[in-house]
């Protein structure tokens, strides 16, 4: 099996290789490899060229079967698609009788479609098959030319169409299946006598037909499955289709999706049954949500685990672990490496970073806890700040079980607040506070009666 991924993709107008553009949080080439891998090939040869090392490294890192199945072939000079397939010749298994060829920029292709294509090829008895489709606008796609009996005889690239061929609407989907020995004998006869001066893979269809060999044309009735991504508008359209598919699967599994148009869920995100996804919700990366949660509206989760029965609304949570029956929001920010244990309450405009918050603790509004270890049943008053950074280093704050932190308290780390201790509102704490003690660190109030009238007289 050969996947072509050597082109520059200039219409994407980006330094990122086209096949690495993410669709629902995943490089588009990984979807292609999923579909190809579902057929159980002995080997998948990915032809790389432009930014080839970047493509290779991404596939090896991101695609589960890459280490065992994928090999890479280099097309150092990009002389056309036929030349790209020739570049893969030495990387294919010896004695491989049949070769499936496809492109790395068709992220909506499915394993089921490829299986039906291969089965059609085998039933036909033809030595070569090509997949075709009919888009709404054939545009730049190569056109399929059939003879009077309806058999495919050649493919004409769009810029090489003659006037009498411009009415043709059936196009080449870019997926081929061919006997290996025949494939390379045909490729050796391909020339570059065309408008672009390139060696076209499509020419093998004409050469086979001229040699009297039958060509099996397999028609795909859903063009979106085989559409290549050539620009960012097509990328957006493909992502919309993939996103709808992800949300449909979630809904069927028992997840309520209030508004699919405004709900974005990355590939691989897990959501348990009974959970409700409210509008304007974004679930990204390696996020997993347990049963019976409410996520949103207006919420974004990155690489985060959420326990059963929790609610996160109008908030952002990044790379954190949220326990069961936790409430976050509105307008909270849970930053990376935070653990919120069971029954934690995080109120509006609270921020927590690199901290562990014990079960039953309440972090009320307008508070900041950074680099902190907070015990169970702690009350964090509004406006509390752990002052964790001295301009050079960061230090941890420890607040033990049952402590009560009054409003507008500043805890200057490193500092430990003992079990059951109280911190008076408005205090700036610089020293450890023993268990069950009251710490007051503020100026004594002074009242000067009549001061306003005297000031006005002066």
Short description:
It contains nine helices and 41 strands. With 458 residues, it is α/β, with parallel strands linked by helices. The protein has two domains: 2-225, Spore Coat Polysaccharide Biosynthesis Protein SpsA, Chain A (Alpha-Beta Complex), CATH 3.90.550.10; 232-439, Hexapeptide repeat proteins (UDP N-Acetylglucosamine Acyltransferase, domain 1, 3 Solenoid), CATH 2.160.10.10.
Main beta sheet: strand number and arrangement?
11 strands, parallel
Low-confidence stretches: none
**Radius of gyration of CA atoms, rounded to a whole number:** 31 Å
CATH architecture of the largest domain: Alpha-Beta Complex
Query: Which class best fits the helix and strand makeup?
Result: alpha/beta
Task: Tell me what you see in this structure.
- There is one protein chain.
- 20% of the residues lie in helices and 28% in strands.
- It has 458 residues and is of the alpha/beta class.
- The protein folds into two domains: 2-225, Spore Coat Polysaccharide Biosynthesis Protein SpsA, Chain A; 232-439, UDP N-Acetylglucosamine Acyltransferase, domain 1 (3 Solenoid).
- The radius of gyration is 31 Å and the shape is elongated.
- The mean pLDDT is 94.
């Amino acid at each position: 099996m050969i996947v072509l991924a050597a082109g520059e993709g200039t219409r994407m107008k980006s330094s990122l290789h086209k096949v690495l553009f993410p669709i629902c949080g995943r490089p588009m080439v990984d979807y292609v490899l999923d579909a190809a891998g579902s057929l159980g090939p002995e080997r998948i040869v990915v032809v790389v060229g432009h930014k080839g090392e970047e493509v290779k490294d991404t596939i090896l890192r991101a695609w589960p079967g890459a280490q065992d199945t994928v090999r890479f072939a280099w097309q150092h000079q990009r002389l056309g698609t036929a030349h790209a397939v020739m570049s893969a010749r030495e990387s294919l298994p010896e004695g491989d009788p049949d070769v499936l060829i496809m492109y790395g920029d068709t992220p909506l292709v499915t394993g089921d479609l490829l299986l039906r294509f291969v089965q059609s090829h085998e039933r036909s008895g033809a030595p070569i098959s090509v997949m075709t489709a009919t888009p709404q606008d054939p545009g730049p796609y190569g056109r399929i030319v059939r003879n009077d009996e309806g058999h495919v005889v050649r493919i004409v690239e769009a810029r090489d169409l003659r006037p009498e061929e411009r009415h043709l609407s059936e196009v080449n989907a870019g997926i081929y299946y061919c006997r290996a020995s025949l494939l390379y004998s045909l490729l050796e006869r391909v020339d570059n006598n065309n408008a672009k001066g390139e060696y076209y893979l499509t020419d093998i269809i004409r050469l086979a037909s001229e040699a009297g060999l039958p060509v099996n044309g397999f028609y795909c009735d859903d063009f979106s499955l085989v559409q290549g991504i050539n620009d960012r508008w097509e990328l957006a359209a493909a992502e919309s289709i993939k996103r709808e598919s992800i949300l449909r699967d979630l809904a069927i599994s028992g997840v309520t999706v209030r508004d699919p148009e405004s709900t974005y869920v990355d590939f691989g995100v897990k959501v348990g049954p009974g959970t409700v996804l409210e509008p304007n919700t974004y679930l990204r990366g390696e996020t997993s949500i347990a049963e019976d949660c409410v996520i949103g509206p207006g919420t974004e989760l990155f690489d985060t685990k959420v326990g059963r029965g929790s609610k996160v609304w109008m908030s952002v949570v990044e790379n954190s672990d949220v326990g069961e029956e936790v409430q976050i929001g509105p307008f909270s920010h849970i930053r990376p490496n935070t653990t919120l244990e069971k029954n934690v309450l995080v109120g509006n405009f609270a921020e927590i970073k690199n901290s562990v918050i014990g079960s039953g603790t309440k972090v009320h509004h307008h508070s900041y806890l950074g680099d902190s270890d907070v015990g169970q049943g702690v009350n964090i008053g509004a406006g509390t700040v752990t002052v964790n950074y001295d301009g050079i280093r960061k230090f941890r704050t420890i607040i033990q079980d049952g402590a009560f932190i009054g409003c507008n308290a500043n805890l200057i780390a490193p500092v430990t607040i003992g079990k059951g201790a109280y911190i008076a509102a408005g205090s700036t704490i610089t020293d450890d506070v023993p268990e069950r003690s009251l710490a007051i660190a503020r100026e004594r109030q002074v009242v000067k009666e009549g001061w306003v009238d005297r000031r006005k007289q002066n």
